[in-house]
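[09:14] KT: can someone run the structure on this one? pasting the chain below
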Amino acid sequence: MEIGEAIIRAGIRKKYYLETRGDVLLRNKEVFRFWKKLGLEYMFIGLEAIDEEGLRKHRKRVSLGRNFEAVEFARSLGVNVAINLIADPDWDHERFRIVRDW
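[09:31] RB: done, C-alpha cells below
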C-alpha cells in the first residue's frame, strides 16, 4: 500500500503486471483492488495444480477451493489472469486432456 501511495503522490501513471499466489491474493484483496486503480492490467497466479493430489505432491499449503476462489476474485477485478500449473513427467495423454479441458 505504501508503494502505491508513493506512486500516486509522484503522479506516476503506468500499467502493471504482477505475479502472486492465490492465498496471498485472498488475504490482501484491498491491496489488489488498490493496484487495479493504479493500473494493474495483468495478473499471473501460481496455482501449480488443479486437484488436491497435485497440491499435496508439490507441498502447497492452499486448498483447491481457495485457489479457485482466488482466480475468480482476480477475474472480478477486471484484469487479465494467467495461471501456472506444474506438469508431471508421469502425465499421460488423458491427464493433459483433462488439464486442457479445465
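[09:33] KT: thanks! The two ends are 34 Å apart (CA to CA).
[09:34] RB: yep, looked fine to me
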